[in-house]
Amino acid sequence: MKKIVVLTGAGMSVESGLKTFRDADGLWEDYPVQDVATHDGWLRDPALVTNFYNMLRKKCLDAQPNEGHRLVAALESKYDVTVVTQNVDNLHEMAGSSHVVHLHGELMKVCSSVDPYDPRYIQTLTRENPEVKVGTKAGDGSLLRPHIVFFQEAVPMIEVAARECSKADIFIIIGTSLVVYPAAGLVGYVPAHAPIYLIDPGNVNLGQSGVEHLKMGASAGMRKLYDKLMG
Q1: Could you say which of 69, 92, 102, 104 is catalytic?
Q2: pTM of the model
């Protein structure tokens, strides 16, 4: 069974109604990114950050996977598929994808602010109770924080993602401008024999030849590529 690795970014979830940002100078849901998505922002005002992610979870819970998400999941009927996503939503899982690597964390999880990756203190919030009360503490006594990789922090799942990319027979990129590192460097791990498909309505320069660019949104692009790969 051939292996497909799908790298997804913000454009994957735009059709599901979720806003995002492109860099640390932007806005996210009208908040300055440096206030709500950086390590310094968390240290400066944990209450603001906690309430921002409470709001974001409510928006995420109202969102549904779009056709692009569903078609990525449907590829599993013929291929071994790994999704590597820069998004913090769980729309890929909701659509049925069974192997998802989250580079930048998961919105529905919270963790210790001293050691965010200590599994003893990672909690998954529920649809019924998606909010964290300001001041709530993790099991180690530190403040409970979003299980999100903030700017200024390392990306611990990047090595796992790189290993997956190195095994790809087919590589698909959806909805990312590939300007944010280290995720942008993952293309360099793709074997030379693997065809690369890019689905994005904008002009994206991957810096390498042989890339088939479908200049359309996630759903339309995945419909066209799905028909090609499943034919």
Answers
A1: 104
A2: 0.91
